[in-house]
Amino acid sequence: MADGSEAVARYSAQQLQDFIQRALSTVGMPDDNAAAIAALMAEADLNGADGHGIFRLPGYVKRMKLGGLNLTPNIRIEREKPGMALVDGDNAQGHLVMKYCAEIAIEKARTTGVAWVGSHHSNHAGPASLYAKMPLAHDMIGLYVAIGNANHLPPWGGMEMLLSTNPIAIAVPADQEPDVVLDMATTVAAYGKVKTAAQRGEQMPEGWMIDRQGKPLTDPNKANEGFLLPIGGPKGYGLALMFGLLAGTLNGAAFGKDVVDFNADFETVTNTGQFIVAVDISAFGDVAGFKRQVDAVIRQMKGSPTLPGFDEVLLPGEQSHRKRQDRETNGIPMHTGLLDALAALADELGIEKLS
What we know:
By secondary structure, this protein is an alpha+beta fold. It is built from ten helices and twelve strands. A seven-stranded mixed sheet has the order 2-3-4-11-5-6-7, sandwiched between helices. A three-stranded antiparallel sheet has the order 9-8-10, with no helix packed on it.
């Protein structure tokens, strides 16, 4: 068998989407919800977010089978004012909750200019950029923040893991250039990258994690013996804390010691919190003019002379854009470890394998 780190085959986004939908429908999810989740998960893989697409399917299915997720939720607005809403996700799969929240934020922003929609009792929803990018199609800027679904980070100077990766994504539309899309964790690496490294039989680079003696930890299979490092030292810790207060505490969602590790506990309700902000560019000025100015800024950045060792200046989201172009043409690369896991899942559910 090929090493787990080797990409052995490529599949179309539609093939992945069909397989995901088959699996979700088989465990009892209504077909329309299964289709919506499958489309978003395949979109994640298409954009190069390999730790948040079909890779997550076995874990999602396990949680669904053990009753940790509500397969027939009543996602609804709990509190509302013209420029905001608080959504009760009813323990639904996070993709459904955040798609619902993004649609509300976009609709409200048409009237109010800016709209903030938060959620509680949601779940893991995949990569942050999926939702920050949704307002782009409506000539809006999107901003998304989430509580990570397991704590892997202590407060700066502490030892107890009380914080998660707490990611943020911001998407700004351009005109002729690719849209600018920042998607980052408040840790040096997202935990999904640790999990994919373990599945592929790869080592982590130094700087992602340290053990409890402060020494570099590079074996992803020993991740539970250490913790992730924040970006920028105490600054990353500060961002993780503040994002947690905004996405968790403000929404009545879990934060700190209340966060459930969904990698280890597949039955307890996670009460995950997220929020999305939609900003209507037309409320601030001419949309076309704004996009042209964004193009100008992008070209200024790209035109900057490079330091030795750098081939070019990259914009946030540019590598993801290139991966998407490649994967739309050539398919999404799948690794042996992941293909084995999906084949085992297909056997478990009695469904057609990813062909």
